[in-house]
Amino acid sequence: MEQSRPVFLVTGKNGQVGWELQRLSKNYPAIEWVFTDRTELDLSNPESIDAFFLNRSVHVVMNVGAYTAVDKAESEQDLAFQINAAAVGQLARICAKQSARLITISTDYVFPGQSEKPYPVNQPTDPINYYGYTKSVGEQMALTEDPFSWIVRTSWVYSSHGHNFVKTMLRLMKERTAIQVVADQVGAPTYAADLAEALIQMGHASVNDGSKPGGIYHYSNAANISWFDFAVAIRDNAGLNCEVNPIPSSSFPTPAKRPSYSVMDLKKIEEDFQISIKDWQERLKACMLELGY
Ligand SMILES: NC(=O)c1ccc[n+]([C@@H]2O[C@H](COP(=O)([O-])OP(=O)(O)OC[C@H]3O[C@@H](n4cnc5c(N)ncnc54)[C@H](OP(=O)(O)O)[C@@H]3O)[C@@H](O)[C@H]2O)c1
Fold this sequence. Notes:
The chain has helices spanning 16-25, 46-53, 77-98, 130-145, 165-175, 192-208, 227-238, 267-273, 280-290, and strands at residues 7-11, 32-35, 60-63, 101-107, 150-154, 157-158, 178-182, 186-187, 190-191, 215-218, 225-226, 243-247. By secondary structure, it is of the alpha/beta class. The longest helix has 22 residues, at 77-98. The chain starts with 6 loop residues before the first strand and ends with a helix. NADP nicotinamide-adenine-dinucleotide phosphate is lined by residues 11-12, 14-18, 37-38, 42-44, 64-68, 83, 105, 107, 154-157, 162.
C-alpha cells in the first residue's frame, strides 16, 4: 500500500516567501503541498480559518502570510493585529488540536534596536512600532496556544518576486543620477529563497520528530550592514552609475519608527536544525543574477 505523504500547508502563497516555497516545492515531491492565498484562507477572518481546517488534517502549517506594511500598520491597527497576532494564535490552537506543527514567521522589529551586538533568541522583546507589536503578540499567542510552535524571526527579506528594497533601489537608481539612503539602521538582509529552504528543513525535522520542542529561532543571511551599505552593493552588482549618499533616519521620517540595530544571533537554528547560514553578498548576487544582472 502506498504510504501517505506528509501535508505541508502554506498561507500567503503569493508573498515573497510563499512564492519561493512554491518554487522549491517542486524539489520535494514526497510532501503533499497545499498552497493558499487569502481567497482560500483569509487570515483577517477567523471563520475563514476555521472553515478551511474543517475536515482537513495537515502535518505542518507554514504561516508566511502576514500584514507586512510596516508604516500602514500604524493607522490600520485592527487589521494588522487580527492578521499578525489573533490569526497566529488561532492557527496554533488548530495545530495543537491536530498535533500539527505550526511554523510561523516573525520579525527583527520585535526588538527596540538599542543593542550593539546580535540579539539572542531569548532577548526580551520591546517593539517600537505597531507592526512589531502585533508580531510580538503573535509570537506569545502561538507559544501559549501550542508550546510546540516554532517562531522564526527574520529580517530585511528580498526576492526576485514581489516588493522589496532591492527592486525599489534598482528602479530608483535607473531613474535618478543620485539617491539618498539611510545609514544609521543596521541589520541583516535575507534572501527569501534561503528562508524558504530553511523552513522546509524545519518541516522535515518536525515530520521526523514530532516531539521536538517548540521555541523561537532567528534566521537571516550573515550580515551586519546598513541600508546604505546594502544599496551600494546593489548598485555595484548591477553595474549602475547612480550616486548613493548616506543620510540619517531623521532626514527620512516615516509613520513607523525603525530599530537602529536589529542584527540577530543565528546560532540556535544552526545548532538545532543544521541549517547553514549564507553570506549576504553571495546571496544578493544570486538574486540579482535572477533579476537579469
Ligand atoms: N519583508 C520583510 O522585509 C520582512 C522582514 C521581517 C519579517 N518578515 C516576515 O516574513 C514573513 C513573510 O514576509 P514576505 O516578505 O514574504 O511578505 P509579503 O511579500 O508582503 O507577503 C505577505 C503575503 O501575506 C498575504 N496576506 C496578507 N493579508 C492576508 C490575509 N488576510 N490572508 C491571507 N494572506 C494574507 C499577502 O497576500 P496578497 O498577495 O494578496 O497581498 C502576501 O501574499 C511575514 O511574516 C513577514 O512579517 C518580513
